[in-house]
Amino acid sequence: MNLSAEKSINLFHCLKELNDGALVEQIQQFLRSGRLSTEKLSPAQWSALVFILLSSGEDLEEFDLQKYSGSEEALLRLLPVIKASNKALLSYCNLSERSCTALSSVLSSQSSRLRHLNLSFNNLQDSGVKLLSAGLESPDCKLETLRLEECSLSEISCKVLFSALKKNPSNLTELDLNWNNLQDLGFLHLCGFLESPDSRLQTLRLRDCSLSEISCEALVSALKKNPSNLTELDLNWNRDLQDSGVLHLCGFLESPDCRLQTLRLRNCRLSKTSCAALVSALKSNPSNLTELDLRFNDLQSSDVQQLQDLVESPNSKLQTLRSVEADICVSLYIFMSEQLWV
């Protein structure tokens, strides 16, 4: 008998009412002993595990799939638990399109509690995001955080995400697309969402996404149309941004409508020209930025001195400046890593 997960759960509720919980007790003993091997579970035992997790509520605030089994089979078996959870940690679980289809159904369910979804470091590709977007665009989707770090995504995923979020824009406040080869063309699609007055995005992470000054110019244009929400922007490791990209960003930073509190520009091939522009912008609008990361750029202590003065100034809210590294070992690591990709 191959019952669906929901039917199996109902069956276990009946068994509990009849005081016939031998299978449930067996799984509980395994959990208590720490000897639960999900690779050997039968379908009935999987359902017992789901029943236990849903009954206890222990993992429903933050459900970590790796705790049980970092696999697609485990995700599909434990889908009712994910649906009942507030946060689902599903990174490094070898997930594919099948998982995206299943998660899409969770996102579009009226009864889903899921608000935070981490799918990072799975080879989802554009085809997976396309399937996931069917859930994202549902009016029943209440997702607030979506993390898709290093999922082998391209500009196509950006276009798909823009389309989905345009249809259901009101809840997402954090989007993480670090380490995907989105390029400027992909980012231009995202800017279409950022400039919408319906966008509530507060945190945007785009580390090492092959972006250039073109993306910075488009970002500033979008944020000037809808400036009030974005507070954290991570552009680390986009080495084609350079000074010309930062000059565009400074056009937004000096605006009184800018609410940005954290700006990360690590290893973006910046020079003292960027430092001077940032000083000028922050003096024009000193009220919001509290953290600025300029590490791993070709900067000397003298280049960042005026920024350091802002940190020490009572008239500036800049509290944290990360710039010139004293740790030679870290710098050497970066140098050697770059040589491997030459």
Write a concise keyword list for the protein shown above.
ten-stranded parallel β-sheet; alpha/beta; 10 strands; Leucine-rich repeat, LRR (right-handed beta-alpha superhelix)
Brief write-up:
The chain has helices at 5-17, 22-33, 43-56, 72-77, 79-84, 97-107, 125-136, 155-167, 183-194, 213-225, 242-253, 272-284, 305-312, 328-340, and strands at residues 62-64, 87-89, 116-118, 145-147, 174-176, 203-205, 232-234, 262-264, 291-293, 320-322.
Strand content: 5-15%
The biggest sheet, with number of strands, parallel, antiparallel or mixed sense and barrel status, is: 10 strands, parallel
Using the coordinates above, name the CATH class of the largest domain.
Answer: Alpha Beta
Structural class: alpha/beta
Beta strand count: 10
Name the helix and strand elements from N-terminus to C-terminus, one letter apiece. Answer: HHHEHHEHEHEHEHEHEHEHEHEH
| CATH evolutionary superfamily of the largest domain | Ribonuclease Inhibitor
Secondary structure: helix percent: 40-55%
Average per-residue pLDDT, rounded, comes to: 87
Strand order in space, largest sheet: 1-2-3-4-5-6-7-8-9-10
List the domain count as a whole number.
3
Q: Count the helices. How many?
A: 14
The 3D shape can be described as elongated
CATH topology of the largest domain: Leucine-rich repeat, LRR (right-handed beta-alpha superhelix)
| Rg on CA atoms, Å | 24 Å
CATH architecture of the largest domain: Alpha-Beta Horseshoe
First and last CA, distance: 56 Å
Q: Any low-confidence stretches, pLDDT <50, length ≥5?
A: 326-336
